[in-house]
Amino acid sequence: MSDIAPGPVRLPTERPSAFDPPAELAELREKCPVARMDFPDGHQGWLVTSYPEVRSLLADPEFSARQELHHHAPYDHPFGKEPIRPAEVGFFIGMDAPEHSRYRRLVAGQFTKRRIALLTPRVEEITEACLDAMEAGGAREADLVEQFAQPIPALVICELLGVPLEDSDRFHGAIRRFFHLGSDAEESRAAYLAILDYVAELVGRKRAHPGDDLISGLIAREELTDQELAGISLLLLVAGYETTANMIGLGAYALLTHPDQLALLREDDSLGDNAVEELLRYLPLFRSGGMRAATRDTELLGRQVKEGECVVLSLSSANRDPARYGADADRLDLRRSATGHVAFGHGPHQCLGSQLARLEMRIAYTALLRRFPGLRLAVPHEEVPLRDDMVIHGTHRLPIAW
């Protein structure tokens, strides 16, 4: 590490390829893994790029996840200078203990490894149905995003929450507007409120007519208000759909442009679990990463962090750290042991739905390659439209043929 710290940096966001995080992150990780960072609204905080520090801070209770404390947007976009509001009740991802612990405890029982394993037959059924639909027209070409990557997690999370499939149009467009970098503050807030209004209405329907679903189960416990239930439902609906859909699509794109790795997985589907972990490690899904705020003055690798300063934790940089994953950390290797990656975070805020996402990805890739042994891109790889205009990375479309 260099003895001379660079001046304040802006968060790098320009990716050199579909599969690589910004090159500046690697340089910072090597020379100044805790760097002074300028935020679009003038705040000066910190950017952390090394694996040990990112993982440690994700689990450190003295770095707060409360939205109203880390209320400075980390990168420049149309609503980047707007203050971030406190989390809605129930939206526990933006809270600390004890509020966060209470909400997470109530929901966590629905996402244990055992309960997720019980979903395996249904996820397999949904996946096969999507593949059947792709084949039905006889064209031997399809958009993998629209016909496969998006429907699988959408159908799974809707069934888990008890969301009627016919209601999907009511929130799908709003989710897209919320994550679009072209949305201004008013449009983004309106999209968020549209999703919140929908789930609030859904909670009311479930209270009147409960079913065999997660929301009805939470209502039956009689520990949450309708407003809290709506906040929890919003979080699970958005996180359970948007991130997994883009991960399935981007992962498939990575496999199709790394033929040696595709061949490994096609020839040995016992690599499925390992492949999922490596794709999660390798692919930079989030534009920034975790956000925390220091709750007291402290020191990070010799840098003096003051109380109230925001810290951006680059998950994609941490997952490419050679100190953790070797000199070839920038290479996709499905045989690599990618354990310990921070794609789902770490510590008390680690993604509750991580096991569900893993299950969906493993089943999706295994079934896709089994059904279509000749799977290939239907266009040159440089013509695949990337989601550079969205907060969550991926591909807008992925034309494939078989």
Description:
The protein has 402 residues and is of the alpha+beta class. The protein has a single domain, classed as Cytochrome P450 (Cytochrome p450, Orthogonal Bundle), CATH 1.10.630.10. The protein has 16 helices and 10 strands. The chain has helices at 23-31, 51-58, 99-108, 113-118, 120-136, 144-149, 151-161, 168-179, 185-208, 214-220, 226-256, 259-267, 272-282, 315-318, 322-325, 354-371, and strands at 34-38, 44-48, 63-64, 141-143, 290-294, 298-300, 303-305, 310-313, 376-377, 399-401. A 5-stranded mixed beta sheet has the order 1-2-8-5-3, with helices on one face. α7 packs antiparallel against α11 (226-256) and α11 (226-256) runs parallel beside α16. The longest helix has 31 residues, at 226-256.
**Tertiary shape:** globular
Q: Given the structure, what is the number of helices?
A: 16
How do the helices and strands follow one another from N- to C-terminus? HEEHEHHHEHHHHHHHHEEEEHHHEE
- Radius of gyration of CA atoms, rounded to a whole number: 21 Å
Number of strands: 10
Low-confidence stretches: none
CATH topology: Cytochrome p450
Q: Give the percentage of residues in beta strands.
A: 5-15%
| Number of structural domains | 1
Let me know the average pLDDT. 93
Overall helicity: 40-55%
As laid out across the biggest beta sheet, the strand order is 1-2-8-5-3
By secondary-structure content and strand pairing, the structural class works out as: alpha+beta
Biggest sheet, in brief? 5 strands, mixed
CATH superfamily: Cytochrome P450
CATH architecture classification name: Orthogonal Bundle
